[in-house]
């Protein structure tokens, strides 16, 4: 598909890459979301915590009430047949402002939303040392299969932010023509499809690399009982985020080093194999993504990949001033699933 002509033209300070990245991440407020949590068991003995937000009052497969209905009871609201499955970014969770914005946007058009928490990020530690890595499409597939088992949804959109975008796009490319028929759209916001390119864009000791390193170290300290004591002592010696990937995360998940991790987990090689309409919304001034992450050349030759690459927006930012607290990315994904984006 041709590159999408962007409508995003922020003013003043919202053109600044860092302000438009940090403000939405730390100060954005999204209200009105009430989650219902569900835990699912995984093939390896671990679990994932899922947070549901239903557009109507009746969730899929609700428990049968033992009370008799009376004539005075209000009519049951029909459950939605459309579902958005939302995947958060690196060391995020279902309560991140960008993800809540997506949930709110989908609920507003009558879609249910399912925000899943990566392993160890739901507020409780998991049973296993393994985490949900950038290429963790197996965890996403478990979530998708669980949602499909409800037997309710006829239309599903996969929505990912940053790391979650890479996972969603990689899953769709791995499945190719065999993707479940219910999955109609894929949306990736600030997608690091070229992981090595993203690492290079951040810089080994840049501000964002240091920020992510601090968050990762805090995360690992909170699950110290799952980690070999000798390995745990090594963490304090690591100077860069790349060191954690190289010496700990990659080997833990069966990869030799950071280079192999970036190569195997990147969505970029799989994006050309995607066979459902997919939107990649990246910003040119994203401080943690390279231009290669936008998949512009692939989009030019694909019948399925739409790439929108505005000058501004930062990382998972795309601020938009309005009364409903929704940002440009939220509105753009709704336009995409409703086939309202003009190419």
UniProtKB/TrEMBL annotation:
Listed Pfam families: Abhydrolase_1
SUPFAM superfamilies associated with the record: alpha/beta-Hydrolases
Residue intervals of the AB hydrolase-1 domain: 85-293
Molecular functions per Gene Ontology: hydrolase activity
Alphabetical keyword list: Hydrolase
Family as reported in the entry's similarity comment: Belongs to the AB hydrolase superfamily. AB hydrolase 4 family.
Full protein name: Alpha/beta fold hydrolase
């Amino acid at each position: 598909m041709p590159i999408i002509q962007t409508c995003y033209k922020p003013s003043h300070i919202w053109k600044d890459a860092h302000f438009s990245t940090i403000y939405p991440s730390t100060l954005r407020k999204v209200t009105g979301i009430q989650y219902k949590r569900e835990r699912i068991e995984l093939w390896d003995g671990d679990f994932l915590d899922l947070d549901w937000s239903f557009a109507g009052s009746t969730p899929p497969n609700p428990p049968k009430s033992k009370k008799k209905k009376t004539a005075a009871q209000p009519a049951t609201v029909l459950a939605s047949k459309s579902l958005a499955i939302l995947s958060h970014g690196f060391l995020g969770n279902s309560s991140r402002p960008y993800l809540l914005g997506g949930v709110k946007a989908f609920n507003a058009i009558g879609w249910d939303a399912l925000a899943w928490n990566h392993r160890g990020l739901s507020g409780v530690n998991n049973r296993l040392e393994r985490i949900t890595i950038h290429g963790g499409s197996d965890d996403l597939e478990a979530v998708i299969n669980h949602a499909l088992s409800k037997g309710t949804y006829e239309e599903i959109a996969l929505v990912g932010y940053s790391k979650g975008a890479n996972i969603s796009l990689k899953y769709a490319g791995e499945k190719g023509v065999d993707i479940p028929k219910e999955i109609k759209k894929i949306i990736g916001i600030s997608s690091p499809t070229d992981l090595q390119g993203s690492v290079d864009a951040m810089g080994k000791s840049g501000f964002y690399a240091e920020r992510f390193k601090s968050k990762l170290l805090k995360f690992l300290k909170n699950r110290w009982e799952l980690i070999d004591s000798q390995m745990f002592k090594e963490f304090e010696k690591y100077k860069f985020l790349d060191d954690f990937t190289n010496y700990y995360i990659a080997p833990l998940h069966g990869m030799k080093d950071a280079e192999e991790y970036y190569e195997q987990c990147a969505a970029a090689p799989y994006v050309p194999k995607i066979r459902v309409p997919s939107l990649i919304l990246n910003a040119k001034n994203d401080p943690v993504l390279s231009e290669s992450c936008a998949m512009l050349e692939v989009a030019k030759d694909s019948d399925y990949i739409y790439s929108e690459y505005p000058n501004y927006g930062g990382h998972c930012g795309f601020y938009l001033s309005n009364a409903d607290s929704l940002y440009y990315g939220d509105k753009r994904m709704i336009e995409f699933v409703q086939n309202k984006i003009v190419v």
